[in-house]
Design goal:
Helices cover 22% and strands 42% of the residues. By secondary structure, it is α+β, with helices and mostly antiparallel strands. The strands form four sheets. It has an 18-stranded antiparallel sheet. A two-stranded antiparallel sheet has the order 1-9. The two termini are 42 Å apart.
């Protein structure tokens, strides 16, 4: 009897938390929603919680990444976390969470973001805090707004704007086009307009992906040809897309953000195909830098020097017209040589590369493979090196179920060391 009562209590608490999680605020003009089912994730992976953890896995108990510290941070941790993005920046996500103990939250900030916490000039009740490299928070006594994404010059103003539009916040359950249809997925991504949805389930050392992508224009379903990468190349990244650029705003918005190219120019002058291959072999590039010397009267003298740097071999091919070839950047983190022939445009970090592409048939019009075992040696950083040590690999492929629908399938694997 005791077991029955205990089980009933746990089930009731589980259902209560799951229903209450739909009362999280999101912006009424959200472009997409990501939902992370924390309770389901923990329940489905209980066996992993009881496994012994090595000192390397445990790491520093004061780490910001240790979930145990977030449980003590004074904010409400719901059964599901809901993140939203806005139309002007699909790469950045926000979540609004309740503060249930302002003292604990401020102690948490003092511990992990003490040097970056400050008040907003025209809103003294608000406090801003930075958690490099990807997270910023804005809070008052009752709520905290999290921003997850790359830092931008206007990111603080963006957060202040969301806060000033508090009247436009609404419960995620009340979004007009948001589907609250039950799903057992641990992570769910949905475009509000129904364009695409992606589901992820996490188990030991892997995450399985599935979903659907609704296109707004028809694509051929018979012959799909993509460029064949060079043999004996250890590729860190393999990517191709046979879709019109209007269907892949991730590409156009990224290029527009980092290079200033107008999205409409990319879309209007492209013939649909683009690919990107990044290997782990390095090549040398020469770059001219400006240095300053001083003459005997301590006057500044400008001098140019040629500097040799080691860069990864990167190749990207586009199909398009001469205007697209002119618009694509000559420098994007690295210098790129540009070759244009027969509506094919090659961008390469190797200026001596011979452009004789070979195309082969494939069933996947959109494909991505990232193999962290082959990450370029010059790409250093704790996150990427950790992924390399765990042999992390991401693979996403698509199949055409009809001329306007793609079925998404994928997997993320890693080892547990």
């Amino acid at each position: 009897m005791v077991l029955v009562i205990a089980a009933s209590t746990i089930i009731a608490l589980y259902l209560f938390r799951k229903n209450r999680a739909l009362n999280q605020y999101v912006h009424s003009k959200s472009q997409a929603i990501i939902s992370l089912a924390l309770d389901d994730l923990l329940l489905d992976n209980l066996d992993q919680l009881f496994k012994s953890r090595t000192q390397d896995t445990l790491g520093d108990k004061l780490s910001l990444l240790d979930i145990e510290n977030w449980w003590k941070a004074g904010i409400s941790i719901p059964a599901q976390l809901h993140f939203f993005s806005l139309n002007n920046d699909p790469f950045t996500f926000f979540t609004i969470q309740r503060i249930n103990n302002i003292g604990k939250w401020e102690a948490f900030l003092n511990k992990y973001a003490n040097d970056s916490v400050h008040a907003i000039d025209n809103a003294p009740e608000l406090r801003l805090a930075h958690f490099p490299p990807f997270m910023t928070t804005l809070h008052n006594e009752h709520y905290v707004l999290f921003r997850i994404g790359l830092s931008k010059p206007d990111s603080v103003e963006e957060m202040k704007m969301i806060w000033s539009e508090e009247k436009d916040w609404m419960y995620v359950r009340n979004l007009p086009s948001y589907s609250t249809k039950k799903t057992n997925a641990h992570i769910t991504y949905r475009d509000i307009d129904g364009t695409s949805q992606l589901f992820a389930d996490i188990a030991e050392n892997q995450m399985s992906l599935s979903g659907q992508w609704q296109l707004t224009t028809e694509i051929p379903t018979d012959v799909i040809q993509v460029r064949k990468p060079k043999e004996n190349t250890n590729l860190f990244l393999s990517f191709w897309s046979e879709l019109p650029l209007a269907q892949t705003p991730v590409i156009t918005k990224f290029l527009s953000a980092v290079s200033g190219i107008e999205e409409i120019k990319l879309i209007n002058n492209s013939y649909g195909y683009t690919d990107l291959f990044i290997g782990n072999n390095m090549i040398m590039q020469q770059d001219t830098i400006v240095v300053y010397d001083y003459d005997e009267d301590f006057n500044s003298i400008e001098r140019k020097e040629i500097q040799e740097i080691s860069v990864p071999l990167i190749e990207s091919v586009w199909k398009g017209n001469e205007q697209l070839a002119f618009s694509l950047p000559n420098k994007l983190f690295y210098k790129f040589s540009k070759t244009y022939t027969d509506s094919l445009i090659l961008l390469s970090t190797d200026e001596r590369v011979e452009f004789s592409p070979t195309f082969e048939r494939t069933s996947s019009p959109f494909y991505l493979l990232v193999d962290f075992e082959n990450i370029p040696s010059s790409w250093d950083g704790s996150i990427v090196r950790s992924l390399q040590q765990r042999d992390a690999k991401i693979e996403i492929s698509t199949l055409s179920s009809n001329r306007i629908t793609l079925e998404i399938d994928g997997c993320i694997t890693y080892n547990g060391k």
